[in-house]
Amino acid sequence: MSAINNYTEEFALLKKLLRTEAFRFVVVRYNHYDLIRQLEKDLKAAYPKRKIQKLNAEKTNFQEIFQTYSKLDGDLLFLENFEGILGKKSTSTGEVTQAMESENERRQNITAGLNLRRDKLAKKNNALVLFVAAKEGEYYLREMMSKMPDLWSFRSLLLDLEQEIVIERTELKVAPERTTDVPSITASQFEQNQKEIRRLRQSLETAGEEDLELKLSIYPQLTRLLVENGIYDRAIIYFDEYLEVVEDEQKTGILIDKGDAQEAKGELSNALATFEEAMVFAEKYEERNREGLCHERIGSVQVALGNLEIALEYFKNYQKIEEELLSDNPEETVYKNNLAISYEKLGQAQANLGNLEKARSFFEQSNQLEKELYESYPQS
After folding, report:
1. What is the pLDDT of residue 344?
2. Fewest beta carbons within 10 Å, which of 93, 180, 193, 308?
3. For residue 26, which phi and psi values (nearest 5 degrees)?
4. Nearest to 204 by CA among 223, 184, 190, 232
């Protein structure tokens, strides 16, 4: 594996390769999804006239891949989560259920189709970029060479992207239920996490319809690990599966977590829809605190979308809810903390709108609550 934080050197190779519009087959191994987002951003800046189309290998089929690729002209097609189609599904005893057989056929059709159509792919001046999460050393490379030997002979470049995994927040404070103190993850810790992720996934795949309790214990662990390791696409898939097996009154928190993953991935429209859905359940089941969090999340997404006036209204609702909760529960520090966050959000929104006096007032109120919290809990 390349040295940690090797992105600059590896991207320079790809940028040089793509200067000439010709068929390129690129394999990118990465240890954090943020690297894919950075690669996409930098490629758009380097080649603004070239489109980037993206497909999720775990949700698509060969026909969609080939049709999408064929419509491109000198552009790039990203196939993300490609490692997910290289293996075969089976139970721990080696048995293959009907659903697993259908999934294995979909996977085989993709690898076989790409291999058989290599000459047609090569006639287009496009770049086909496969993204493979770094998990089991050379395993996935061997599988690609084995399943797609003809296409592999066209391979133009293999990138190995690795960075020290640190999940950062740019906000001064983050509302509860959002990750607030995630330590740096070393390469060794990342590998340990990957092993645990594989174990949990295998347990899910072998669980039967009657093993509901097992599934309910696995999904929160699996989605948390995937998010912590920046594997947002996979996390979103499992959040959806998780939502299918829980009762409606349990869905609010899961939807908020799913929306956080979508927001982190840059899928703002999807995140907005997910937070709005969470709000419906929060209101239905009178989860007042989570209802407030939904207002905060929606407001934050609206800020990212540039809709400051809309965001301001959601932050006002967030403030109102937290004030009511704190008034009813004056000893609950979580509500005082949330209220401080709501004031800060309001201050940021007002500042962005040019209302500096109003912004200062909200920041002062937030600061006062922070001081009170610190005086009561100096070690926290």
Report:
1. 93
2. 93
3. -120, 135
4. 223
Question: Tokens representing 330?
Answer: 């004056």
Tell me the pLDDT tens digit for each residue of 165-200: 443 333 333 444 554 334 455 666 777 888 899 899
Sheet holding 52-56, edge to edge: 52-56, 76-80, 127-133, 24-30, 155-161
What's the whole-number average pLDDT of the chain? 86
Cβ atoms of residues 73 and 125 within 8 Å: yes
Whole-number pLDDT of residue 170: 36
C-alpha 278/C-alpha 362 separation (Å) is 27
**pLDDT at residue number 167:** 37
Helix (H, G, I), strand (E, B) or coil at 47: coil
Residue 185 DSSP symbol:
B
The DSSP element (H or E) to which 25 belongs, if any, is strand 24-30
Q: What's the alpha-carbon Rg for the chain, to the nearest Å?
A: 23
Angle, in degrees to the nearest 10, between helices 308-328 and 288-304: 160
Give me 371's structure tokens: 């001081």
Condensed to tens digits (0 to 9), the pLDDT of residues 320-352 reads 999 999 999 988 888 899 999 999 999 999 998
Reported as type and span, the H/E element at residue 369 is helix 356-376
pTM for the whole thing?
A: 0.60
DSSP-assigned states of every residue in 296-340: HHHHHHHHHTT-HHHHHHHHHHHHHHHHHHHHH-TT-HHHHHHHH
Q: 342-359 burial string, b = 16+ CB within 10 Å, else e?
A: bbbbbbbbbeeeeeeebb
Q: Residue 83 burial by CB count (10 A; 0-12/13-18/19+): exposed, middle or buried?
A: buried
Which two tokens mark 360?
């200062």
Q: Please say whether the dihedral angle defined by the alpha carbons of residues 216, 222, 224 and 226, taken in this order, is positive or negative.
A: negative
8 A C-beta contact, residue 347 and residue 364 = no
